[in-house]
Each structure stands twice: as structure tokens, then as C-alpha cells.
Write a structure and sequence with these properties.
The structure holds two protein chains of two kinds. By secondary structure, chain A is an alpha+beta fold. Chain A contains four helices and ten strands. Chain A folds into two domains: about 1-65 and about 80-110, Helix Hairpins (Orthogonal Bundle); about 125-235, Immunoglobulin-like, CATH 2.60.40. In chain A, helix 2 (about 30-65) packs antiparallel against helix 3. Chain B has two domains: about 1-40; about 40-635, Cytochrome C Oxidase, Chain A. Chain B is built from 18 helices and four strands. Chain B has helices at about 15-35, 40-50, 50-80, 95-130, 135-160, 185-210, 225-255, 270-300, 310-320, 340-365, 375-400, 400-405, 410-440, 445-470, 490-520, 555-565, 585-600, 605-625; strands spanning about 1-5, 10, 550, 570. In chain B, the strands form two sheets. Chain B has a two-stranded antiparallel ribbon. Chain B has a two-stranded antiparallel sheet with strand order 3-4. The longest helix of chain B is centred in the N-terminal third of the chain and has 36 residues, at about 95-130. The chains are: A alpha+beta, B mainly alpha. At the A-B interface, helix 1, helix 2, helix 3, strand 7 and strand 9 of A face helix 4, helix 8, helix 9, helix 10 and helix 11 of B.
Chain lengths: ~240, ~650
């Protein structure tokens, strides 16, 4: 049992210490940062629960184990303990409320929706995304379109209008932010805010057939002026 | 690969040929053994049995067979993913898709479900003092329908037509527009037929628990495994009906050109709603019975009653109810809108509360006890920290905006394997070790059992813990490879090693069964110093149990009389009991339905109509047989 606890704990610390290099926990957009904040917050709260359970578990299993010295011990008959049970009902509720508040706030703000913003705000770049077996097509505001290569201007909010030509795909750039599904019968809109300069990889996250694995695209976030030049060159 | 036999040339991939060859060899060995030791009477009796213990044993036997096959698929998946840009055998592209589809579908429907139903079949009547399930004939039909469904599903692989649409069968990929071949039909029909059997068995369990409890076995004296079974059976009744409807609609879309899940009027999201209204309760259908098993094993080996019994019952009921309110947390990225995404986040978080109560009640059952580390207890203890680790990632997943990152990544794969393996699979093994005396009259070897446990548990954590990181590093699920530069190599390789450790654990389990049966040392009625009624009947449990009928005087009735050092009181004044009589009809019914279904898959409608007539004829024969007739007048049947 002790071995098990040790294994789990060491694994846990390994995960905590090694995360600076983990893509999703170190995202390059403010949308992704909000998501990473939620992941850290939930992991932190849940780590509290884990530690309490592990300590109680290890302590009880060790202390009350069968041994030659205790072999004639007769356990006392205990039916339960209302106060104790109420405690571990109420404390989790409080922890969950603490977690629920930022969850609601960020989810309300970030959830993809079917209603597109009519007038692009300042600092927003619109990209029309089309998924099909097994490639991605990105159409920029000036009408130029490119396959499997997505170039974006840095520090802008990017509004993706996504739809599919065949079945369901899912648009995901782990290093930037979370994913959104791409449907044949409706258009979804998803905003990724303040993207940072860099080169990333995008993937299809919804199983869509034999070449699903290879339905990837490259993402480049470049300077605003470079971006303007880039889309004009495409024309 | 192409093979020519007698002028016919058959082309088939090498994995299919390998499967045929190994099946023929295994079949040969088994036939040789059966003929040599003349096991025909035994096989004949099991084909016709309607006894709950024998049917339960069949459920577990075949469930374990399919568990092994699905486990083999898992090892092949892990071999393909062991190193970047791997090309292991031929498991890339559609072969890989078929691999993960088969692994998921078989593990859920043809391994976990039947093994749990098997344990319920064996244990529930013994725990409540019933002589059998309420409808023994229907019980046999239920089992053989599961068997028929599994047979259909397995057969697809041997014809090189295994489905490759994922166990979730998402439309429109699963519709005839994108997968017109018979492969997806095997999924639809295999799951449909076995699901029907599951519904029958659930009905049976509900009626049994309501009608056939021994005198004095009040609701709040029932063992927690029986409680869990009761709630689970109600959930099966609701959830599997929805699955059946979903599969019917998909069948119509595929075969008769309806457009429920595509086109201008249909919507692929409808499938996701229907599937997850089934699929999320299904997760708890798998977990609750395991909770029940642990709740009976932990008190036995702590020498103490369960801590907070009524809270345990209440939380089972609450989890069962809440599980029907959370399905769309599987769909947070489909654009349901901010309001629904928030709503389902909150309902999902709520489930953590009753689950937490259960965890702490198990912990406080240990407190002050005298903990004996037997193999069933080790599996139960291994469950607690492992399941909590899966539970906390469950809460993390409920955070909708964070789920945009987690969804459909390896993080989710890690999460659901953590919870399902910790609860269902460890629970099933705990249950098999614990109840083997009642099933077979033998006790499994403790030393080999400990090897099994430790290898499996360490392998499990080694496989799935790194997978969280693989997911957070951006690896989606259901992809067959990755690049060396993606930073996924180390964690994937660790997972592969872990999977093989689990496989080694299972080998020890095989060895254990072999050794135990070879040594064949009979075991007493009460080998574990148990607390409940099942330990008052002989091992293995005979066909006519509880004669005379015991009177239950409280929770843990056997423990009460042990403490007071007296015999259990009995009575002859009790409700009429179910009567199990052998019948070959259930097998015939299931086989005709399987034949009918097989013809439907290939759209041979005339042939399927003929089998339908045959099936109907069997219904008529059944309507005119009454196995209770010989008991009329003896005052037993009512």
C-alpha cells in the first residue's frame, strides 16, 4: 500500500514540476490562458481532496492492519457519524462553488455559438474555416484562401467561422486554445483572443475517417504588417 | 495476403488470417479436451440451464473471453503507439480504426456489462434469500441474447468487416453516406441484440429484488450490492431503451434511406444526444455495481459494518438520478451555447458530492477495523485511491471552458480509463475472487492473486497516468501516430510498458484459475468469515437454496447470529419462490435472432423473414409450455 501511495505521489510531483513544457498549460493566447487558469485552479482544489483522501487512506490502512499483536482485537460496532458525514458533504459543496464561479464566468464568455458577430470589431480578424475529408481551408477577410496553412496576425482577436463540407471535424490548436467542433449543417463561431507570435500545429480532434490522424495544419502567427502583406500576396 | 485453397483464392489481411488460424487451433484443443474427458453432458446442461448461478457463471466466462480479446486489441493499440511514426504490423489507418472501435465496444458491451450481470445473477438471489431470479426462463433468454450479440459483433472481424466508427458510432460517419459497407451494420446489430438481453435481465433483477426477499429482509437491511444492483437495473431499463431507439434510427438511416442524422431535416447532433443520454448513465451502470461489491467486501475484511449505511444507499440513488442530468458534458464543444455549457458543467460537478460521501464512508469503515489483506480486499483497497484520481480529473473535465482543451484528447482517454478500470474492472476482479467459492466451490490461490493484483495495479497507473500529460501536450484520441518532435514519445512509451504489465497480471489470473481447478480443494460455506446471507448456503450454491427459508433479523444477518452464537431462525411461511427448469428454447430463440440479424446485415430479407417465422414459432411453443405445472398442488407455485 505504501508503495502505491509513493508511486502516485511521485507521479503527481513529476506532473507538477514538468508542466512548464506542456503545451496546453502554457498557451499563447489570452483565451488559452483563461483555460489554463481554470485547469490549474481545478487541479489545485482537487489536489487538496486527493491529499486528504491519500493521507486518511494510508493512515487507516497502516494503523488498523491485521497483525499478530492485534489478531484477537474485536472492532467496535459503529453505525456512522452524522456530524462527520455532514462535514464531508458540505466541504466538497463549498469547494465546488469556489470552482463553479470562475467556470461559469469563463464558459459564458468563451463558448462557441451559432450567431456570428455582424460587424467585426476593431482588432478582430475573421477567418472562415472549412473542414473536409481530409484537409482544412482557411479563407481570409479579403477572400484569399489557403489549404492546411493558417497565418494569423499577432495580438489580434481571431474570430473563426467554422463549417464542414462532409462530416464532423474538430478544430484544435492546442498551443493556442481549446477546440470547437466543425459541423456540416451549421456554422459555429469561436474567438481566440490575443494570439502571440510563433509557429504551432493544428489538428482535427474529432474522428472523421481513415486519414483523421493526418488531418493537420500548420499555424503561423506573424506581425500585423507582415500579415497584411501576406494576404495581399495571396490575391 | 492471398491464399489459394482448392483453386479458390481468398485474399485477407494477415491479422485476420492469424485470427482464423489461432481460433481453429484453440477450437481443436477445446474439442479434443471435451471429447477426451466427455464433457458433453456438462455442456448440454449449461445450454439448457435457467439456474441463476450457472447463468451467472456463463456470463462471467464469456465476458472474460471477450475481455481478453478486447485486451489484446488494447495491447496492439499500445504497440502501434509505442514510438513515433511507428508502422506496427498493419495497424494504421482503417485497421487502427477497427482496433479502437472493437476495443471500446467489446470492453463496454461484451466484457464489463456481462461480467457485472454475471456477478449480479450469482450474488443477488443469495444475498436476499431468493431461490432464483423471478423469471428464470427470461434470465436464460437474456444471457443468450448477449451471447448472440457478441457473436455477431465478433464475427465481423473474421470476415474482415470490423466496424471502424468508434464505440460511440457518431453520425454522420456511421451513416451509409460515409460508411456504406456492412462493417457499421455489425456494430448496429451486435449492440442492439445484446442490449435487448441486458434490458430483459434488468427487468428480471428489479422484480426479483422487489418480490423475492426473504422474510425480514427489509429495504434498509439489504446488502449494498443488492441496492446498487436495484438502482443499476432501473438505470439500465431507462438508458438501454434510449440506446435501442438510437440504434433503430441509425439502422433506418443506413438501410432504408431515412435522414434522422443527416440532410436538411436531420442533425448529427441528435445522435450525440441520444447516445449520451444512454452513454452517461452507462458509466454509472458500470460503476455502481462495483461500488456495491466494494461496500460488501470492505466491511467483511475490516470486521466492521459499513460506515453510514443509509448515506451509502442515499448516495447510490442520488448518483443514479443525477447521471441522467449530465449527458451533454460529452458535447461541450458542439456549440450548444454558453447557457447549456454552464448548466451541464454545474450538474456534472454535483455528482462529485454523493461520490465523495461514498469514498469517505469507505475510509471510515476501515477506521477502527481489523484489516485482513486478502486478494478481494487488496482489489478493494487499490480501488479507493485510484478511483479518486479518476474522480478528480472528472471534476476538472466538468469545467466547460477547460474542457475545450481536454475534450477528445488523450487526457479524456486517461480519465475514463482511470474511473472505469478502478471501479468496474477492479470491482469485477474483487467480486470474482470473493465469490469464486459460491460459483465453483473453490477458493482462488492467494499468492497468485497478489501477483495478479500488484502487476495489474502498477501497470494501470503506469499506462494511464502519463496519458494525462500526453493529452495536455496536444495528442488527440483515435490517432494512430505522432511525430518525434511533438514531445509525446516518453509518455506514450511509458503507457505501452504499463499496458503489458497489466497483460502480465491477467496471465497470472489465468494461471491462478488453472492451478485452483487442478488442485481442486473444496472450500467451506463461509471461507471469508462473511456477514450476509450468501455465506449461509453451501459452496458452490446448489440449485435449491434457502430450504428452509431464513428469517432476517437485521442488517448483516449472518453476523448477528455469529455474535450471539446461535443458529439462524427459519420459517416455512414465505412467499412462493421462482422455479428454474431446464429448457433449450432460450438458446434456440437467441440463435434464430442471431441468424435473422445476420441476414439483415447483408440485406437478405427473404432469409431473415424465414428466421423471423422460426423465432415466432418458438414464441408460440414457449406460450404453451409451463414448467411450473409439475409443481401445482404442492403449494409452491402460485
Amino acid at each position: 500500500m505504501k508503495k502505491l501511495g509513493l508511486l502516485i505521489l511521485s507521479g503527481f510531483t513529476l506532473m507538477l514540476s514538468g508542466c512548464s513544457g506542456i503545451n496546453v498549460l502554457d498557451p499563447k493566447s489570452s483565451t488559452g490562458k483563461d483555460q489554463a487558469y481554470l485547469i490549474w485552479l481545478s487541479l489545485g482544489i482537487m489536489a487538496l481532496v486527493l491529499i486528504v483522501v491519500f493521507i486518511l487512506f494510508a493512515y487507516f490502512v497502516y494503523k488498523y492492519r491485521y497483525s499478530e499483536a492485534r489478531k484477537d482485537y474485536e472492532p467496535v460496532d459503529v453505525e456512522g457519524n452524522r456530524k462527520l458525514e455532514l462535514t464531508y458533504t458540505i466541504i466538497p459543496v463549498i469547494l465546488l462553488i469556489i470552482l463553479a464561479v470562475p467556470t461559469v464566468r469563463i464558459t459564458m464568455e468563451q463558448s462557441p455559438d451559432t450567431s456570428a458577430s455582424q460587424k467585426p470589431e476593431d482588432g478582430t480578424t475573421k477567418i472562415e474555416v472549412t473542414g473536409r475529408q481530409f484537409e482544412w481551408e482557411f479563407k481570409h477577410e479579403n477572400g484569399a484562401s489557403v489549404k492546411d496553412e493558417l497565418v494569423l496576425p499577432e495580438d489580434e482577436d481571431i474570430e473563426f467561422n467554422l463549417h464542414s463540407e462532409d462530416l464532423i471535424h474538430s478544430f484544435w490548436i492546442p498551443e493556442l486554445a481549446g477546440k470547437v467542433d466543425v459541423f456540416p449543417n451549421k456554422e459555429l463561431n469561436y474567438v481566440i483572443r490575443d494570439v502571440e507570435r510563433g509557429e504551432y500545429e493544428g489538428k482535427c480532434a474529432e474522428f472523421c475517417g481513415v486519414q483523421h490522424t493526418n488531418m493537420t495544419f500548420s499555424v503561423k502567427v506573424i506581425g500585423k504588417e507582415d500579415y497584411k502583406a501576406y494576404i495581399n500576396d495571396l490575391k | 495476403m492471398e491464399i489459394s485453397i482448392f483453386g479458390f483464392s481468398i485474399s485477407a489481411p494477415s491479422d485476420v488470417i492469424a485470427a482464423w488460424i489461432s481460433t481453429v487451433i484453440m477450437g481443436g484443443i477445446i474439442t479434443f479436451y471435451v471429447v477426451k474427458t466427455n464433457k458433453f453432458p456438462l455442456i448440454w446442461s449449461y445450454l439448457r440451464t435457467t439456474n441463476h448461478r450457472k447463468i451467472g457463471t456463463l456470463y462471467i466466462l464469456f465476458g472474460f473471453l471477450f475481455f481478453s480479446r478486447a485486451g489484446l486489441d488494447a495491447l496492439l493499440i499500445r504497440l502501434q503507439l509505442a514510438v513515433p511514426n511507428n508502422e506496427f504490423w498493419l495497424f494504421q489507418f482503417e485497421k487502427y480504426d477497427q482496433l479502437f472501435t472493437t476495443h471500446g465496444t467489446m470492453m463496454i458491451f461484451f466484457a464489463a456489462m456481462p461480467m457485472l450481470l454475471g456477478l449480479m445473477n450469482i450474488v443477488v438471489p443469495l444475498q436476499i434469500g431468493a431461490r432464483d431470479l423471478a423469471f428464470p426462463f427470461l434470465n436464460a433468454v437474456g444471457f443468450w441474447l448477449f451471447f448472440a450479440g457478441a457473436l455477431i459483433f465478433n464475427f465481423s472481424f473474421f470476415l474482415n468487416s470490423a466496424p471502424g466508427i468508434g464505440w460511440t458510432g457518431y453520425a454522420p460517419l456511421s451513416t451509409s453516406i460515409f460508411t456504406p459497407d456492412v462493417n457499421s451494420d455489425y456494430y448496429v446489430f451486435g449492440v442492439q441484440v445484446s442490449g435487448l438481453g441486458t434490458i430483459f435481465t434488468a427487468l428480471n433483477l428489479i422484480v426479483t429484488i422487489i418480490r423475492h426477499r426473504a422474510p425480514g429482509m427489509k429495504w434498509f437491511r439489504m446488502p449494498l450490492f443488492t441496492w446498487a444492483t436495484f438502482v443499476t437495473a432501473i438505470m439500465i431499463l431507462l438508458a438501454f431503451t434510449v440506446l435501442a431507439i438510437a440504434l433503430y434510427l441509425l439502422m433506418f438511416d443506413r438501410m432504408f434511406g431515412t435522414k434522422f442524422f443527416s440532410g436538411p431535416d436531420g442533425d448529427p447532433v441528435y445522435w450525440q444526444h441520444l447516445f449520451w443520454i444512454f452513454g452517461h448513465p452507462e458509466v454509472y451502470i458500470l460503476a455502481l455495481p462495483a461500488f456495491g461489491i466494494f461496500s460488501d467486501i470492505i466491511p467483511t475484511f475490516s470486521g466492521k459494518r459499513i460506515f453510514g449505511y443509509s448515506a451509502m444507499v442515499f448516495s447510490i440513488v442520488l448518483i443514479g438520478f443525477l447521471s441522467f442530468t449530465v449527458w451533454a458534458h460529452h458535447m461541450l464543444t458542439v456549440g450548444l451555447g454558453p447557457l447549456l455549457n454552464t448548466f451541464f458543467a454545474i450538474t456534472t460537478m454535483t455528482i462529485a458530492v454523493p461520490t465523495g460521501i461514498k469514498i469517505f464512508n469507505w475510509l471510515f469503515t476501515l477506521q477502527g477495523g481489523l484489516i485482513r489483506f486478502t486478494v478481494p480486499m487488496l482489489f478493494s483497497l487499490g480501488f479507493i485511491p485510484s478511483f479518486v484520481m479518476g474522480g478528480v480529473t472528472g471534476v476538472m473535465l466538468s469545467v466547460s471552458a477547460a474542457d475545450f482543451q481536454f475534450h477528445d484528447s488523450q487526457f479524456v482517454v486517461a480519465h475514463f480509463h482511470y474511473v472505469i478500470l478502478a471501479s468496474t474492472i477492479l470491482g469485477i476482479f474483487a467480486g470474482i475472487y470473493y465469490y469464486y467459492p459460491k460459483m465453483m466451490g473453490l477458493r482462488l490461490d492467494e499468492t497468485l492473486g497478489k501477483w495478479h493484483f500488484w502487476l495489474f495495479l502498477i501497470g494501470y497507473h503506469l499506462t494511464f497516468f502519463p496519458m494525462h500529460i500526453t493529452g495536455l501536450n496536444g495528442m488527440p484520441r483515435r490517432v494512430f501516430t505522432y511525430d518525434p518532435g511533438d514531445g509525446l514519445t516518453v509518455t506514450n512509451f511509458m503507457s505501452t510498458i504499463g499496458a503489458f504489465l497489466m497483460g502480465a497480471g491477467i496471465l497470472f489470473f489465468f494461471w491462478n484459475i488453472f492451478k485452483t481447478h487442478r488442485e481442486n480443494e473444496p472450500v467451506s460455506d463461509d471461507p471469508w468469515n462473511g456477514r450476509t446471507l450468501e455465506w449461509t448456503v453451501p459452496s458452490p450454491s446448489p440449485e435449491e437454496t434457502f430450504d428452509p427459508m431464513p428469517v432476517v433479523e437485521g442488517m448483516d444477518p449472518l453476523w448477528i447470529v455469529k455474535k450471539e452464537g446461535r443458529e439462524m431462525r427459519t420459517t416455512t411461511d414465505h412467499r412462493s419462490t421462482p422455479i428454474a427448469r431446464d429448457s433449450i428454447l432460450p438458446v434456440l430463440m437467441a440463435l434464430s435472432l442471431a441468424a435473422l440479424t445476420f441476414c439483415m446485415i447483408y440485406q437478405w430479407f427473404i432469409a431473415s423473414a424465414i428466421f423471423a417465422v422460426g423465432l415466432f414459432a418458438l414464441f408460440i411453443v414457449r406460450s404453451f409450455t409451463d414448467e411450473k405445472k409439475e409443481h401445482y398442488g404442492k403449494g409452491e407455485a402460485s
